[in-house]
Amino acid sequence: MRKITCLPETFQFNSIPNKHYIETRKKKKEIDGKRIEGNEVYALVICVSILLFAPIVVSQPIPTDKSQVEAWFNGIIKPLKEKGKTLDPELVQAETEPRIIKVMQGGGGEFHTITKAIESVPSGNAKRVIISIGPGSYKEKIRIERNKPFITLVGDPKNMPNLTFDGTANYFVGANLNIVNTAPRPDGKMVGAQTVALRVSGDRSAFYNCKIIGFQDTLCDDRGNHFFKDCYIRGTVDFIFGSETSLYLNSEIFVEGDPGGDPEMAVIIAQARESSSEDTGYSFVHGRITGTAKDVFLGRAWKSSPRVVYSYTKMDEIIHPGGWSSNRQPERADTVYYGEYKCTGKGATPATREKFVKQLFDAEAQPFLVLDYVEGSKWLLPPPTVPN
């Protein structure tokens, strides 16, 4: 299972079997023999209960009809020149004079590695830097520091590059990338065998048309507001985890069977909210869940108060009839926020779901069906394009 070690300031990520670390300044806790992050929350809260579960709705909801989603998105998320006044001024200033850096393994670019291209970006960067990546496999430990915001990694959608990635910078964009952890499948014996393919810890990060592939712990979707559109995510156990606020739109989740894993714990999501006062959670809209595993749980209560909602999601019959797990801690059934809204497929079976699962009414679902769930109206722009 996941092993997480807390360090005071740094994060390191390896694309080979090894320990992986998550940056934290939080209190350490021990649960089920695993050291994990914990929060100490001090707050005086006086508000109606709906505010604990929902952001403010200010944008048009995602259409019920999946065929209308692309036109809806393009109608809202327009180029900078059409949307500048509604975006954060810092972002507008950064986008006015973008710099393009080309990376090509066989020559013809400014650099032959992604790492060298990132190193060329100065600390405190205040302008959009688009790193255009040529085809091929880039076996690098790619890291973008917090002091280098406004970086975009983009590949050719017809010949997508393969790479590993770890990013903490704000205003990051990734498009047309295969982000793959090439470590062998964990066998249940090797210590620290599971490692992430992608960790996202910077605020306001977007991924378009990316494939994120691994086994256990594929995607550490951690801290800040994140947006995934038209992506493909594959893994075995807890392979989307973290404590941020993310919207996944029109993305496919593939659950790979894990012969050496716990047959009762084939799980997609381990969202890490620890209190209802934390405004974090995952929203999956117009996605699909498929794979080769059996009796898959949509999520489990890794922490005490996770919040996850699936809307308009097509679920194959691989989903466990109960749908969700309290992580063998019955008391967490009273603190989780697990919701489903108008999902379809053989795996979408409301009648057999656990009692703590919410089948959402229209009004309850609406806060999870808008781009402003991740404050998207302030920072989202269309996927980048690079001129030939």
TrEMBL record:
Keyword field contains Chloroplast: no
Highest taxon above the source species: Eukaryota
Reactions catalysed: [(1->4)-alpha-D-galacturonosyl methyl ester](n) + n H2O = [(1->4)-alpha-D-galacturonosyl](n) + n methanol + n H(+)
Pathway: Glycan metabolism; pectin degradation; 2-dehydro-3-deoxy-D-gluconate from pectin: step 1/5
Regions that span the bilayer: 41-58
EC category: hydrolase
Assigned keywords, A-Z: Aspartyl esterase, Hydrolase, Membrane, Transmembrane, Transmembrane helix
Alphabetical list of PROSITE patterns matching this protein: PECTINESTERASE_2
Catalytic residues as annotated in Swiss-Prot or TrEMBL: D238
Enzyme Commission number, as recorded: 3.1.1.11
Pfam families listed in its UniProt record: Pectinesterase
InterPro entries the record matches: Pectin_lyas_fold, Pectin_lyase_fold/virulence, Pectinesterase_Asp_AS, Pectinesterase_cat
Ranges where the Pectinesterase catalytic domain occurs: 102-376
Family that this chain belongs to: Belongs to the pectinesterase family.
Protein name according to UniProt: Pectinesterase
The species this protein was found in: Gossypium arboreum
